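Mods, move this if it's the wrong board.
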Amino acid sequence: MVKVLIAGAGLGGLTAALALHRAGCRVEICEQADELGEVGAGIQISPNAVKVLRALGLEAAFEAVAVRPTVREGRDWASGAVLQSFALDDGFAARYGAGYYHVHRADLHGLLVDAVRDLGDVPIRLGARAVGLGEADGAIRLDLADGGQATGEVLVGADGIHSAVREALFGPDHPRFTGTVAFRATVPVDRLPADMIEAKGYNWMGPHHHFVIYLLRGGQLVNCVGVCEMPDWRIESWTQRGDLDEFRREFDGWHPTIQTLINGVEACWKWALYDRDPLARWSVGRATVLGDAAHPMLPFLAQGACMAIEDGYVLARCLQRQDDPVAALAEYEAARRPRASQVQLGARARTRTLHMADADEVRQRNEANRQDPERFAKEMHWLYAYDPVAEQGPL
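Not the wrong board. Structure tokens:
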């Protein structure tokens, strides 16, 4: 029975732990935080990832904490006119084999933590920050900041965008600031006019800005993400507090719905968005990476969490299939790197579509959407139709 070390107890690391345990591996998780929790607010989980949660026996628990929108709408920043509409109804779920959901990151994380703890034999070491690794004689060692170590036969770096495992394998990366910054906040629905926000996904598009809105926690919270072009602010952190007055100024003149939402915000966070090119490789010997450690991406296709969830399942199947862990990691990389890299580059390219400022380009985009209402659905089909469980087989 192969022992797998996982650095990081985020969404990807926990999903991998559950899948690896089901695949017959022994698993140990090392997490740098002193207590388990999750920062951030809303995330979107599309059918490709829901199928993994189903395969792990978590679909019902997930649906209990998530919101299923009926449609995704692209709207004009000033008039509020619907520029694009993409149904997420029962027909969508039937087409793709699962539904589309909005969920608070902390709620999904808590569900995964509980599932891992319920296993009873997957230890989670807290306050265990990865700083390096070593490999010898068929074993791999994870070095921790407190001087401790963990040993196993495979190491998975699921330690996020600033991954120590990735750096140990491939050297420091050189992220590229994209010139965009996200303001993130949630607003209780009871602070807003009745029925102002429906169970939809809204993407308001404007010059050099866009604004994403959807419901969380049974419709009790509205998730808001306002993205703007800001070339001189470069703090890459999910926990940096933002200035509400600055948030308001960035979206001054936008539709009254946006103004009402921002005025209902009590606190916001400000996050500089960096881009990284796809890695040329993910694995070295008995060590590999997944999730943001492997393919950190802009959030503009709403696939960051989904890719990490897919990674965890595919990794487990490869280790279950192969007797040689090194061969299993090579198979995992071959299965995952092309798709994840395509998503990285697709999210990068979508910035331009969302932030168009030239009047002629905006008219052309809107006319193309009018003439082909299924345009966006066609563009996203390759993402949502993918089924890692069917492709890899059941655990």
